[in-house]
Design goal:
Structural class: alpha/beta
Shape: globular
Order of helices and strands: EHEHEHEHEHEEEHHHHHHHHEEEEH
Strand order of the largest sheet: 1-8-5-4-2-3
Helix content: 40-55%
Number of helices: 14
Mean pLDDT: 93
Bound molecules: nicotinamide-adenine-dinucleotide, zinc ion
Oligomer: single chain
Number of strands: 12
Length: 358
């Protein structure tokens, strides 16, 4: 029996798509069918490029595409994908390639996890959120009945191929929204990385490929380290939820008008505030963390928000343990802790702190 705990896949970082065909050869795809799964926006930008690269490296290459947007991360779309794969005669040894952001990655992973009881898949993440965060860790799934990620599976990709140059076509708000998760990684695990982000602010905003590559590598390695210690989310993986308890509540209260990372930024500020109130952070540290989001076009305060409503929504979030809120606080920059002593009053005060009207 092999108790090897290391992940059984490669993560490749690059500034082009050129080496992707080589990576496929390494995986031995010569006699397998490949299906690129993508959304309408990414299809228009990159599907042909990938198709040209892979068509000689496999038995047959096809594209399955669905309309872009979270509202299509559903079982309905998965069903269409199954039908397509059956029509194209995909069998156990064939392979899916997720080309797109987190929506495509989650949906493709889930399709691969369940089609014929599980087939291989590869990720080519094309948003900053997907490169720096969601493509790592093996969580796949779809939304159901209005509940996010309600149905899913753990299914590891065979390869993750990241081309940071693909990020240049990303809409500005999407780009910075993904950046919020990177900042979160620095805050919870690595103060040196956090300072590096500050020092490279200009290059990051300009999307300078070599700096992006370094940033994505570092962000992934933090996520990977946390996930590998706790693959099924029994303990430390919860630290990745920093900024997410209040962040998710704001996301819901605002009916998903704000982007996920924008809500995470607000949630990080609120959680840093509570960390100060619990005397884990100093006041100076709190303000420094808060102001760090500003140059990256992320919000640190928000209008028209009801602290009572947000507090109630945090309680309905899934991060509960024996009726208490499992809250992630910061002990210092680079060190997060799980705290069970955060009260409703703490949350209310934090929401008032980030409220624009106060
Ligand atoms: P997304 O996949 O919807 O992508 C955002 C938009 O950008 C889409 O319209 C897409 O078509 C477009 N796009 C993608 N790449 C592009 C590019 N290179 N150039 C131009 N446009 C591009 O959203 P996202 O933020 O990447 O992912 C969000 C999803 O990720 C959520 O469903 C969330 O639940 C999931 N997620 C999963 C995990 C996990 O561990 N599995 C972690 C975090 C988030
Ligand atoms: Zn997140």
């Amino acid at each position: 029996i092999n108790y090897e705990k290391k992940p059984c896949y490669d993560i490749v970082f690059s500034q082009t798509f050129d080496e992707f065909a080589f990576e496929l050869e390494e995986l031995g795809t010569g006699n397998r069918r490949l299906c690129i799964v993508t959304d309408s926006s990414v299809e228009a930008l990159y599907a042909q490029t990938i198709l040209d690269l892979i068509k000689d490296k496999c038995k047959k290459a096809v594209v399955f595409s669905f309309p872009a947007g979270e509202q299509n991360k559903t079982l309905d779309t998965v069903k269409k994908a199954y039908t397509f794969l059956i029509e194209e005669e995909f069998d156990r040894k064939d392979l899916l390639i997720a080309l797109g952001g987190g929506v495509v990655g989650d949906l493709t992973g889930f399709t691969a996890a369940t089609y014929l009881r599980g087939i291989d898949f590869i990720q080519i993440p094309t948003t900053l959120l997907a490169q720096a965060d969601s493509s790592i860790g093996g969580k796949t799934g779809v939304d159901f009945d209005g509940y996010k990620n309600m149905v899913g599976a753990f299914h590891m990709p065979k390869l993750v191929y990241m081309n940071v140059s693909a990020l240049k076509t990303l809409e500005e708000r999407q780009y910075y929204s993904g950046f919020a998760e990177i900042m979160k990684h620095g805050l919870i695990r690595d103060h040196i990385f956090y300072e590096w982000l500050l020092n490279n602010m200009y290059e990051i905003c300009e999307r300078e490929p070599s700096v992006l590559e370094e940033m994505v590598i570092k962000s992934c390695s933090i996520k990977k380290a946390v996930v590998e210690k706790d693959p099924k989310e029994m303990g430390d993986r919860a630290l990745l939820n920093f900024g997410h308890t209040i962040g998710h509540a704001i996301e819901k209260a605002k009916n998903f008008e704000l982007y996920h990372g924008e809500c995470v930024a607000l949630g990080c500020v609120a959680a840093a505030f509570i960390s100060w109130k619990h005397e884990l952070l100093s006041m100076e540290e709190y303000y420094e963390i808060r102001d760090m989001f500003v140059p990256f076009n992320l919000p640190i305060s928000i209008e028209d928000i009801d602290s009572q409503e947000i507090t109630a929504l945090t309680k309905s979030d899934k991060k509960m343990d024996a009726g208490k809120i499992k809250f992630v606080l910061l002990k210092k920059v680079g060190k997060a802790v799980i705290d069970m002593s955060v009260t409703e009053e703490d949350i209310k005060a934090a929401v008032e702190e980030i409220s624009f009207n106060e």
